[in-house]
Structures are given as structure tokens and as C-alpha cells.
Design goal:
The protein is of the alpha+beta class and 55 residues long. The protein is built from two helices and three strands. It is 33% helix and 20% strand. A three-stranded antiparallel sheet has the order 1-3-2. The N terminus is likely disordered.
Length: 55
């Protein structure tokens, strides 16, 4: 079961990430020291996001 976290990441990072294909997103997040990945635009609200899958 994936672990879910709430955090306040850098918004530029999020915008860049959304432009990448999903396979590349994981590598990009890992390179940028984000421990968990899989961002969903639908859940961004109040400076929070949900991520899943460990790098």
C-alpha cells in the first residue's frame, strides 16, 4: 500500500513536474529530493498536495 503524505512543495517544482510524462516524473522528483511521488492536480488545495510511491 502506498504511503501518502501532505506537504508544501515548491510550486515551480510542481508546475515543472506536471509537464513531464509520468515515467519521467518519478525520476525528476527523486533527483529533486522528493521522497514520495505521484502528484495529482485535483488534490492541490490550501498549499497541500498528496504524493505516493517512494523513490
Amino acid at each position: 500500500m502506498p504511503k501518502f503524505i501532505r506537504s508544501k512543495p515548491d510550486l515551480d517544482f510542481l508546475q515543472d513536474l506536471f509537464l513531464l510524462p509520468s515515467a519521467t516524473q518519478k525520476e525528476y522528483a527523486c533527483e529533486n529530493s522528493y521522497e514520495l511521488l505521484y502528484l495529482s492536480k485535483e488534490v492541490i488545495s490550501g498549499n497541500h498536495f498528496i504524493a505516493q510511491f517512494r523513490c
